[in-house]
Design goal:
The protein is an all-alpha fold. The chain is about 70% helix and about 0% strand.
Length: about 80
């Protein structure tokens, strides 16, 4: 399944009020004067440092269960 297919499937499964929120947010991205990208650029050194920390956490069994993390994020953002 492509990203587009997955996105459409997710939108179809959402309640109508949640779809309206997504539409309103998307419209704001096009009319807002501030940049749509909330992420600040980081250096290659920072990316590699973050990756090393992530690998350390995984090796120490401190990683998150992806299904649990996605469910928590879905509930937090009103998708579930």
């Amino acid at each position: 399944m492509s990203t587009l297919d997955a996105t459409i499937s997710m939108l179809e499964a959402m309640p109508e009020d949640a779809r309206i929120k997504v539409l309103e947010f998307t419209q704001q991205l096009f009319v807002s004067k501030k940049p749509a990208n909330p992420f600040v650029p980081v250096s290659e050194e920072q990316v590699l440092s973050d990756l090393a920390e992530s690998r350390r956490q995984i090796a120490a069994s401190q990683g998150l269960n992806m299904e649990d993390a996605l469910n928590r994020m879905g509930k937090q953002h009103g998708f579930i």
